[in-house]
Amino acid sequence: MQMSMLKDLVPGTRRNWTVCARVSRIWDYRGGTDDGDILHVGLVLLDSEGTAMYAEIGADDVDEKKPLLAEGKIYKFQRFRVINCRPNFRPVECKFMIDITYHTLIVEEENPVNDFPLYVYTLTKFADLPGLIGENKRFIDVVGFITEVSGLEPVHFTSQRPSTVRKIVILRDGSNYQMKLILWGQRARDFNDAEIEAMGQQEPVVAIIVGALMKSYTHEPCLSGNSACHWYINPDVPEANHLLDSLHEAFEPVKRIAIEGQGSAQRPAAAQPQQKTLQELQPISPYDFPPEGFICTVTISRVNEDQGWWFPSCNQCSRTSYPDGSGYSCSACDCKTVKYKYKICLNKCLLEYNNTSSGAKDPLAVVPSGSDQHIKEASLSQSTPPPSAALDSPPAKTAPGSSDDNAGKKTARKCLFGDDELSDEVADYESPVAESELDGYGLDIRKKSSLIPSKIEDDLSKKVSQSKKVKRN
Questions:
Q1: For strand 178-184 and strand 220-225, is the pairing parallel, antiparallel, or unpaired?
Q2: What pLDDT digit, counting tens, does each position of 415-430 carry?
Q3: Which residue spans within 136-176 are E strands per DSSP?
Q4: Distance CA 195, CA 211 (A)
Q5: Residue 371 neighbours by CB distance under 10 Å
Q6: What is the rounded distance in angstroms from the CA atom of residue 76 to the CA atom of residue 121?
Q7: How far out from the chain centre does Cα 315 lie?
Q8: 375 CB neighbour count, 10 Å cutoff
Q9: How far is 209 from 205, CA to CA, in rounded Å?
Q10: Residue (of 407, 410, 408, 429) closest to 418 by Cα position
Q11: Separation between Cα atoms, residue 419 and residue 313, nearest integer Å
Q12: What is the pLDDT of residues 372-395, one digit of tens each?
């Protein structure tokens, strides 16, 4: 039987490939939850030449194929498909991937002739990590000393149900750069912090972290590890050995990160935001908003399709980035990488005009739930707005269609969400964990869509057109 190497695999042919490879990593992807259905099983395969390739088992074949595989073992694979690799969230850099199907044959190789590498990684320097915030084309691999660890901590985000858990690991590289790694869900449970802490009292602990992403939580850059994240502790590889050799002075033992509420008096429960109507919110000064904000349920009655509602945002500081040659550049921090964010403008809730939308130029009109323009409710959880988000008093009533109708509205905008770097007409809020697309026509502004701007506007245009047709019928 002739063996093929992973580098020889190409799509577009029905050749009966046979490859022998080690399963370097394997993980279940459940769509960002711990207990959801398995959407696919991801694998990183390594052949005897050290070539790596991503492989995937689809949801329909997980029950039959996954029990045949175990991380670290070597297998022969036959009757699989070779297809183009997914454009985002690549664990290794490769043009093509293996699709393991119902017809794929998998046989364990108990006595392999050749040696197969154990690990595959492409290391990124800690100093380069902040510029990768928001990038999802490829997962990130790093190496560093573990200096601090935390226990399991329950976490609840408004945009994510049910709650999840996390562990925090502090890493330090040879140049004394520090980076926080946050492990979520099942990966947090799998990380043995007690063993690492005990090991770190006697000797330095070096870890290679693979399959992470760069995020920004509470305006702090950090690595985020979910289902695809793996770690290798004190591996016998050149990069880890070189890091150990750079430790000229006595090492510092691994420390324990204290978690509030564990081992000490429980902190008081966080205050819950009060429910208020838009009419009740209008007279409240932004300086008088409580830290927990308010909750206000409103209805979006229309979207102005001519109003752009995305902007290029700096990956590092979230300010607006501007065109610079063939790319973008942030004037505040010189970051050259961007991602697209929502900028959402909300009308100030003119109850007097909730039935007169003709000729209005407001990007979004917000009307009471009882209005005859009701489409779908959206819950808006309000954070403390910036001082610049002034609250104007409602204008006087004018007859619908009169020349003063639009004039009374032109300054009647108010931000329910704010960002100090955005204008008082723009609201931008990014969830620290969950990303979701638009749900029907309603919009939960606490969530951030991963759609590209043109896709957002196309989808909304279709939904607006469909809504108008329904009303006419």
A1: parallel
A2: 333 333 333 333 333 3
A3: 140-150, 153-155, 164-172
A4: 22
A5: 15
A6: 23
A7: 12
A8: 19
A9: 12
A10: 429
A11: 12
A12: 333 223 333 333 333 333 333 333
**CA-to-CA dists, residue 118 to 46, 71, 73, 196, 231, angstroms:** 8, 10, 9, 21, 12
Q: Report angle CA 42, 43, 44 to the nearest 5 degrees.
A: 135
Residue showing tokens 């990488």 = 337
Burial code (b: 16+ CB inside 10 Å, e: under 16) for 214-239 equals bbbeeeebbbbbbbbbbbbebbebee
Question: Residue 227 half-sphere exposure, CB side, CA atoms within 13 Å?
Answer: 18
* C-alpha–C-alpha distance, residues 253 and 292, integer Å: 39
pTM for the full predicted model: 0.61
Token look-up 């509205």 returns: 409
What is the sign, positive or negative, of the torsion defined by CA atoms of 457, 463, 465, 467? negative
Distance CA 163, CA 385 (A): 26
With beta carbons less than 8 A apart as the criterion, state whether 440 and 459 touch.
no
Which ranges of 313-434 would DSSP assign to H, the alpha helix? none
Q: Are 425 and 413 in contact (CB under 8 A)?
A: yes
Q: Report the distance separating Cα 211 and Cα 52, nearest Å.
A: 14
The mean per-residue pLDDT over the stretch 182-204 comes to 94
Peptide linkage before 386 cis (omega within 30 of 0): no
CB 241 within 8 A of CB 200: no
Q: Decide: 319 and 338 in contact? Cβ < 8 Å.
A: no
Q: What is the mean pLDDT of residues 451-460?
A: 47
Between CA 252 and CA 143 the distance in angstroms is 17
Q: How many CA atoms lie within 13 A of 172 on its CB side?
A: 18
The 3-class secondary structure across 377-405, one letter per residue, is EEEEECCCCCCCCCCCCCCCCCCCCCCCC
Q: What is the mean pLDDT of residues 336-360?
A: 52
Identify the three-state secondary structure at position 56: strand
The model's pLDDT over 8-18, given as tens digits with 9 standing for 90+, comes to 999 977 678 89
Q: Is the peptide bond before 91 cis (omega within 30 degrees of 0)?
A: no
pLDDT at 319 over 60: yes
Per-residue pLDDT tens for 256-289?
998 765 443 444 556 788 888 888 888 988 888 8
Which pLDDT does position 295 carry in this prediction? 87
Task: Assess contact for 25 and 43: CB atoms under 8 A.
Answer: yes
